[in-house]
């Protein structure tokens, strides 16, 4: 019976390896086959006539078998046919079937060999080409000469000088001379620009003029309107001079690589001073120059910086202001004290009055701060009529004394504690 591809197992694809009685079975099978062949030959000799009748039947059976074989599912596994042939050869030679390996085992062996070779290649020391940046000490001698190395040129390579390049250069130079293109001039010094080019300073003459004002104005008027008699030059001489100047200039440009041309002569330009009020072209609105000034030009910038509101002020700004206020207060107090001392020296009667007022004000301030307390002398001068009033007054006095003593002790303790803290490291 032909099995379907779903019902096939491992045994259908591979031969059994662990069978110990493989050789015995094979030998027994061979003996049985020999006996069957002898029996068949005897039957064939006896029934030669009957065979002709069954020939047609055999052909039909073979045809059916070939059809069934063609319908079978086969798998193209590597080394499958080879293993069958090898096993047959080994069996013929009489090799032990336990030594015969299946195709799977052979594949596993090949794979393990390949893995081993790859591991060895990884563990081996790499050649110097694959080590990255290698110095001359780390690689073998003259090894770089055998390699084709690619690298970037930082500087532009100089062209190879040939006849063509020289001819090209000569042609360019000749063409430049014909075109009078002297554009490769490198100026040595930059000509100094005069700060007062358009508005030159007038040299004032401090000596008293011998001429009167009317005579000076008359001379100026005459200079402006009177035509000066200039000496007429020969036009040919002028032309020759110009030609010679141009020739010398060209020769200088050719012979000297760093030729510095003469600085240009500054032309006199008359710039009329603008009026105080300028009228716009778009709209006829008169604008003063004072309105165009920046705020810093009108008023100098504050040295302390920009004026800020209370919300804009940072904690540092606030502290700075507080320090300034305290300093101003201190200065005022010192000045006041100085004035008082001077007054005491000058007028002692008035000074005592002022000192009493100052003492009273100081006492008032201390009581407000809570640093001192005032004892009220209400009824001290009066005679105590009852014993209750006397004892209540006495009690108040004792209470005040106790309070003062406790305050003194606390103060002393605080001072001691502070001194101990100062001594600690």
Automatic annotation (TrEMBL):
- Establish whether keyword Cell membrane is in the entry: no
Keywords of this entry: Nucleus, Ribonucleoprotein, Ribosome biogenesis, rRNA processing
Task: Provide the residue span(s) of the region labelled Disordered.
Answer: 1-88, 302-361, 405-425
Q: Which domain of life is it from?
A: Eukaryota
| Compartments in which it is found | Nucleus, Nucleolus
**Is Ribosomal protein among the key words of this record?**
no
Where does this protein have compositionally biased stretches of type Basic and acidic residues?
1-14, 60-71, 302-320, 337-350
One Pfam family of this protein, by short name? Mpp10
Record's GO cellular component, any one? small-subunit processome
Q: Which terms does the UniProt entry file under GO BP?
A: rRNA processing
User: Which InterPro entries does the UniProt record give?
Assistant: Mpp10 (IPR012173)
Family per UniProt? Answer: Belongs to the MPP10 family.
Q: What protein name does the entry list?
A: MPP10 protein
